[in-house]
Amino acid sequence: MGAFAEWQPRYAEHGIATFPVDILEDGRKKPAVGGYLKLGAQYSSQLTLKFGGHEALGLACRRNKITVLDVDTPDERVLADAISRHGYTPFIVRSGSGNWQAWYKNSGERRRVRPEAHVPIDILGDGYVVAPPSLARKGRYELVQGSMDDLDRLPPMKRVTNNNEQSVEKPKPKALASTFREGDGRNNSLFRRALQCARQARTEQELVQMVAHANQQFAEPLPMDEALSVSHSAWGYKEKGRLMVPGGEATAVIFKSDMDHLWDAPNAMALLIRLRLAHGYRNGGPFALAQAIAASMGLSVPTYREARDVLVDRCFLEIIHRGGRGKNDPPIARLL
Asked: How far apart, in Å, are the Cα atoms of 272 and each of 30, 174, 281, 328, 333?
C-alpha cells in the first residue's frame, strides 16, 4: 500500500480531499488525475482503488480551505521570520528537499509566487500542494510539528490584506538599542532579540515581559499582538530545545544518566549528541536517519551502524521504518 491509499482516509477524517501525485523523472510533481482542484471526498476515496500504490499525494488549497506558506529554502531562520510575520501555526511540514511549509486556515488568499522578490517564500491559497508523508525524489515529506488533529483548528494567516496582496511594511527610522542589528525590520529584530531572551527566561510570561520591554526601544513599537506572537514563537523554540540565533549555535541536552548508560560506547554517545543537535527539537517526531552522518563524524559505515544499534538496544533511538527499498527510501527513526 502506498502513501496515498494509507493517508487518504486520515485526511478525509478532517474533511480534506486528497489525490494521487506522480513524481516525474526530473523531480517535478504532477497530479495523476484531472479535475483535482474541485475533487470531493467521495471521489477521493474511490481513487485509492486505482492509485493505491502511489507514494505521493496532494490537496487543492482553496477547495480544502488551507493556505500554505511555502518556504523555498532549508534555512530555519527564514521560516522563523515568516512565522513571526504571519502568525504562529501548529502545523509545520518539511519537504523531501528540506524546505518548509507552514499551514494556515484559508481566509481568501490566492496563489502568490514571491510576493517579495528577495524573499524565497510563496503564499499558496489556491492551486495545490504536495502533502506529507509523500515520497519525492529527494526524500519524504514529513510533519515535523503538530498532528493531524491540528488540521481542525488551523489559525488564519496574519498580515495579508483583504485584496489578497501581502502587506509590505516600508522601513522607517528606528532608535534601537545595540542588541538590535542595523538594517533589520522591526519584526525580525524583535524576533532575534526574543530568541536571545528565551535563553534566560524561566517562563513564557517572563519572556513576554522581556520582549515587551525590548519592543519599547523602537521609535515606533510593534502592536502588542505582534509582540505576543513573537514571544510565543521564541518560547516554542526553547521548549523544543532548538534556540538558534544568528551567530549562535544549536544546543543538545545530555544528562548524567545518558553518560552512565553509554560510558562504554563513546561512538554511540557522539552519535546521540549529533542526533539531538539535529533533531531534538522534533520532540520525539520522526526523521530520516541518513547514513551520510557517518562520514560527517569521521566514522566508517560499520562503526556508525554499531553505534546506531547501541542507541537502539539501549532505548535512546527507535527505528520506525527500516528503509532500504531504494535510494529514496532511507530509514526513519525517532529519539526516545
From this structure: 39, 44, 14, 24, 12
